[in-house]
Design a protein that fits this description.
By secondary structure, this protein is α/β, with parallel strands linked by helices. Helix content is about 40%, strand content about 20%.
Length: about 375
C-alpha cells in the first residue's frame, strides 16, 4: 500500500491510495456491501456510479457463505467478480450492534448466530485469519466499538480491551496485507489520545476513528474530531468509520479525514429517501405523484437520465423492487459525485464555500 497527499487546503487534503486492486482518490466514500454485494446493484452499476472501493464484513461472511467457500473460489474479489479494492470490517462493530446477543471476554467475543442460534466465537486472531483468506485490500483490527452513552470508567475499560486486541491483531497478521488500527475511547478526548499513543507503537498502515456515529450528538462527535484528527499520522490514511451524512462528511474532511463508509446511501434509498444537490427528497411524499422531472436535474446518474420522480414513486407504491434499485443507483452515484466535488473544492481552495452550500441544503 502506498499513500500520497497531493494537495492540502487548511487541514483538508487530497490523496492517492494505491492498493493491490486499484487506486483510490481521497477523500473517499466506501459503499457498503456487507455480504459481498451492494444490495440489488450489479458490479457494472457500481462502476457506472464511479465507485472505487467497497466495504464488506468479515463477521457476516464468516457465517454465510463461510470463508472456506470464498477461499475455494480464489478469494472475495473472484467470488463476487469485483476487481477493485475491498476493505473488510473486522466484526468489531457487531460487538456493539449485536450486544444483546454477545458475551465479551479478554480472548474475544461469543456471538449467538442470527442464522440458527448456534454459538460462534470470534477472536482477534480469527478475525485477521478470515480477512487474510478473503484477500482484503485493507483489513481492520478486531476491536470493541464503545457504545454511547458510556461513563468514563466503561469507556476506559473498552478502550483498553481494544488496545489488547489491536496487539493480537497485529501479531496475527502474517501477510503483507495492509492493516488499520482503530482509535477508541468513547467521547473522552484524553482516552482517545491514550488509545492513539498506544496504537502508534504498532505502526499500522492506516488509522481509523471508531465508536463514533453510535447515537451521540453531532456537536460532540465534531468536538472529538477537532481534537484528535490532527494528531493522527499525517503520512497515513485517516478513516472515520460509519459516518455518512453529507454535513458530517464535509466537516470531517475539513478536519483532515480521508475515508468514510456508511449504509445510509442504499438503506435510505430503499426507504424512499434521496440525496440531491438541493437537499433530501422523500419520494413517498404525495407532491411527487405527478412530477415528471428527474430526482435531481443536476445529476447524470442512470436513474436521473431515464426516469421521473412520478415513475419511481409509482414503482415504490407498487412495491416493485426496481424502485429500490433505481433509487440506490441514484444515491450511490450522488455520494461518489459529492466526494468528487469535495476533492475539487480542496484543489481549488473553495472548500469553505462548499461547506456553506451543504449546510444550507442539509438543515437537520
Amino acid at each position: 500500500m502506498k499513500f500520497n497527499i497531493t494537495k492540502k487546503s487548511g487541514n483538508a487534503r487530497i490523496g492517492k491510495l494505491n492498493l493491490k486492486h486499484g487506486i483510490i482518490d481521497t477523500p473517499s466514500f466506501m459503499t457498503v456491501g456487507t455480504y459481498g454485494s451492494v444490495k440489488s446493484l450489479t458490479n457494472n452499476e457500481l462502476l457506472d456510479c464511479n465507485a472505487q472501493i467497497i466495504l464488506c464484513n468479515a463477521y457476516h461472511l464468516m457465517l454465510r457463505p463461510d470463508q472456506k467457500i470464498i477461499e475455494k473460489a480464489g478469494g472475495l474479489h473472484k467470488f463476487m467478480n469485483w476487481n477493485k479494492p475491498i476493505l473488510t470490517d473486522s466484526g468489531g462493530y457487531q460487538v456493539f450492534s449485536l450486544s444483546s446477543q454477545t458475551k465479551v471476554s479478554r480472548d474475544g467475543v461469543e456471538f449467538k448466530s442470527p442464522l440458527n442460534g448456534s454459538k460462534v466465537f470470534l477472536s482477534p486472531e480469527k478475525s485477521i485469519e478470515i480477512q487474510i483468506n478473503l484477500g482484503s485490500d485493507i483489513m481492520m483490527i478486531f476491536d470493541e466499538c464503545t457504545p454511547y452513552p458510556a461513563n468514563k470508567e466503561q469507556a476506559k475499560k473498552s478502550m483498553e480491551l481494544s488496545l489488547y486486541w489491536a496487539e493480537l491483531s497485529h501479531k496475527a497478521n502474517t501477510s503483507s496485507m495492509p492493516l488499520f488500527g482503530i482509535v477508541q475511547g468513547g467521547m473522552y478526548s484524553d482516552l482517545r489520545e491514550t488509545s492513539l499513543k498506544e496504537l502508534l507503537k504498532f505502526n499500522f498502515d492506516g488509522y481509523a476513528l471508531g465508536g463514533l456515529s453510535v447515537g451521540e450528538p453531532s456537536a460532540l462527535r465534531n468536538d472529538i474530531l477537532q481534537k484528535i484528527t490532527h494528531k493522527l499520522p499525517k503520512d497515513k490514511p485517516r478513516y472515520l468509520m460509519g459516518v455518512g451524512k453529507p454535513k458530517d462528511i464535509i466537516y470531517a474532511v475539513s478536519q483532515g479525514i480521508d475515508m468514510f463508509d456508511c449504509v445510509i446511501p442504499t438503506r435510505n434509498a430503499r426507504n424512499g429517501q434521496l440525496f440531491t444537490s438541493s437537499g433530501i427528497l422523500n419520494i413517498r411524499n404525495k407532491q411527487y405523484e405527478s412530477d415528471l422531472t428527474p430526482i435531481d436535474e443536476n445529476c447524470s446518474c442512470f436513474t436521473c437520465k431515464n426516469y421521473s420522480r412520478a415513475y419511481i414513486r409509482h414503482l415504490d407504491k407498487c412495491n416493485d423492487i426496481l424502485a429500490g434499485r433505481l433509487m440506490s443507483i441514484h444515491n450511490v452515484y450522488f455520494y461518489q459525485e459529492f466526494m468528487r466535488k469535495i476533492r475539487f473544492a480542496i484543489e481549488s481552495n473553495t472548500l469553505d464555500d462548499l461547506i456553506k452550500n451543504v449546510e444550507h441544503n442539509y438543515i437537520e
